[in-house]
Request: fold
Amino acid sequence: MMNTKAVLDPYFAESFRATLSGANSELDALRESAFRTFESLGLPSPRNEEWKYTDISSIFRSEWRMLKPAATEIGVDAMSILKRFKADRNGLAALNLAFADIKVMTIPADTRLAEPIEIDLSAAEDEMSAPHVIVIAEPGSSSTIVETYRSSGRGLTNSAMQIVVGDNASVTHYRVQNDDTAAFSYGITEATLGRDSRYDATSIELGCSISRHDIDVRFTAEGGEAWVDGLYMLSGSQHHDTHSCIDHAVPNCISHQRYKGVLDGRSRGVFNGKVFVRENAHGTDAQQQNKNLLLSNEARVDTKPQLEIFNDDVKCSHGATVGQLEDEELFYLLTRGLPEPLARNLLTYGFAEEIINKIGVGSIKGELDAMVLNRLGTAI
Amino acid sequence: MLLEVRNLHAGIDGKEILKGLNLQVNKGEVHAIMGPNGSGKSTLSKVLAGHPAYEVMSGEVLYEGKDLLEMEPDERARDGVFMAFQYPVEVPGVSNSQFLRLAYNEKMKHVGGEELDPLEFNDYLKEKAKIVEMDPQFFKRSVNEGFSGGEKKRNEILQMAVLEPKLAILDETDSGLDIDALRIVAEGVNKLRNENNAIILVTHYQRLLNYIKPDIVHVLANGKIVKEGGKDLALELEEKGYDWVKAASI
Ligand SMILES: Nc1ncnc2c1ncn2[C@@H]1O[C@H](COP(=O)(O)OP(=O)(O)OP(=O)(O)O)[C@@H](O)[C@H]1O
Ligand SMILES: [Mg+2]
Reply:
């Protein structure tokens, strides 16, 4: 078990050769370089500081079916975005790029999409998928992207989403991970924001046995504003880890982060929120908040804000809480006749609802409401 | 008799606050409880509602002949006991209408009445809101969250209107209300008053009692009822303060 790398390398290597199409030498070269990165990094392990609390070794005790990626046209813009993907962040990211099943979506300049774009990235039973979606939101465009995971078996998704928000463009991004509780998921979101653009992300994590989401938001020009919100709701022996990284690389940008966790059973949550404010990034406003509700004595959460601020002219705040339901709120509901289990569920629902309420697409909000209530075993 | 409190000793964190309190309330009556700050009025309200942090050291409370202290707070509520909080609690993320419908339906289950679906309940709620002249925009908002002090108090009486309790304990519902709101809320309470229910009004101001005429005024001081009288007692207290009753009771 200790040396998964040695056991798995030949296995991945064999599957890897099949991904090379020969049709696109630039892409093949990128894949090969990513695969070499994977070979040198190996799979992430708790020995890496970044993976301290998330041990994925159990996932790789069994073999996964790797799919040959479908052939796609990749334009010049998409290729340069793909080259910027941080495949060296860890072995899984490198594997994603090596096996990437690439989809490119372009929202034309100054276009307002009335309907959300839905992307389903569920993996099939015993399959390790490596979807890699590139969204190019051209200047002045406005769109909503819904990324969903609803695998019904023990699949493994190792996904990546690169979103480039052009100048004056706006992207609303909902990520809903409601995989089977036997499934595994690792997802990377990399968003870059142009001048005066906005990116509004909400990530909901409900399923999987072990899941992790890395979300990086980088401001590349002034005037950008980002909302990076999320909810993880865990029970049983589920494990979820969110690592966010907001990079204020330029002046006068605003970021809001609000993550909430609801943890029941023996579940375990991890939230690590990095905020970088670079030397020249004056006028930065960066807020971060992580609130956790523990519903059982055995549930546990590790939350860590990590602010690295190299400029004085900034407004930054962060706060992390871990607590139980408020006794006074509970008593209030009891005095109105709600039986205690219902009162507890209603308060938990209310806690989660603060994140779900911001979802602007009615059908998704309704579905999430239902998922949360279903998780609580309550009809409201 | 609807409520009978006999020689009640109760407190919190080992500190005795109610020190032998007696109170008898019949159906159809309105009782006012007045008394200095810290005398134990909210303690009494919370003990009657069943707050788990308060402990009853001795004494009895009978509600419709049943041992109220044996009942859980939610059972008491479904059985018709209601307390309007001096400081209503905010419940983020739960809408007022959702919350009220759940509470209403729980009560209906208990009394064998008809439960309402969201649409039916909305109509019911609109009717009830008229009693306290509450704007329906408050239905969608989270319970008490961001409500002004006065709006919270009005919301408490809306809840009372929805749940139609047999025994309502209103803990300083008048404080924080502006002059018009006080009249509206008081008239609302009067509309909810009937021969089958009883109301205990905890208040500091006799002005409320101009609107809601009490049958009996009790003065609570240092954990005990030290004086009882008719409506005029409130006027007398307003004029003279509490020192004379406290002095007289020793
Ligand atoms: N947790 C506690 N520990 C110790 N003393 C407490 C605690 N909670 C309340 N008390 C005390 O109990 C006494 C009675 O409080 P209570 O709230 O019942 O008074 P009240 O009559 O409602 O006053 P007011 O008119 O100000 O609302 C007060 O002296 C208060 O400080
Ligand atoms: Mg009080």
